[in-house]
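Lecture notes, part 5. Sequence design as translation. It can be helpful to think of inverse folding as translation between two languages: the language of shapes and the language of residues. The source text, in structure tokens, appears below.
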């Protein structure tokens, strides 16, 4: 799968590494060349593009025209939304996702068909569950993921993994 990621912050860089380690082709776009250090020295430098990810020429240099997926994870909702809409409508990328911090904006753009993740909602729900149901912290898949731990397998997962 060919993935173009806009935003080489902590989330973008980690996502790029996860995808690269799973043998996907990843291209990273960021306006700040120093951000590419987060990718590690073994990340292919030809897979990094310096520039504004809302600019059509920058997106083309990143290979947006051949991308299967575009993910916008900059720190700005407006930039993420604009870049995602450009990828979706102008370049017809099959799958487009973005991070939107503002829950009201996320709801609006979800109704327009933009796939997004809102860390504000996710974080609030995790804290809510941890405060009101402390057992959740040790047994919930979401809490395990949020803390960087392995996801606990359910009895169904054990059964499925033993079948041919």
């Amino acid at each position: 799968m060919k993935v173009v990621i806009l935003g080489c912050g902590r989330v973008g860089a980690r996502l790029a590494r996860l995808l690269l380690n799973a043998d996907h082709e990843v291209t990273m776009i960021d306006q700040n060349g120093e951000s590419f250090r987060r990718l590690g020295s073994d990340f292919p430098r030809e897979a990094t593009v310096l520039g504004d990810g809302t600019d059509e020429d920058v997106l083309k240099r990143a290979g947006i025209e051949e991308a299967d997926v575009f993910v916008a994870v900059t720190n700005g909702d407006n930039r993420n939304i604009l870049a995602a809409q450009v990828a979706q409508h102008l370049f017809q990328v099959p799958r487009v996702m973005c991070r939107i911090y503002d829950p009201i904006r996320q709801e609006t753009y979800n109704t327009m068909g933009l796939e997004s993740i809102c860390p504000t909602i996710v974080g609030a729900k995790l804290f809510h569950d941890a405060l009101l149901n402390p057992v959740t912290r040790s047994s919930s898949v979401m809490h395990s993921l949020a803390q960087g731990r392995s996801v606990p397998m359910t009895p169904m997962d054990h059964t499925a993994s033993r079948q041919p």
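The translated text above is only one of many valid answers, since several sequences can fold into similar shapes. Helices lie at 10-21, 56-61, 77-90, 103-111, 119-132, 135-139, 141-146, 155-162.
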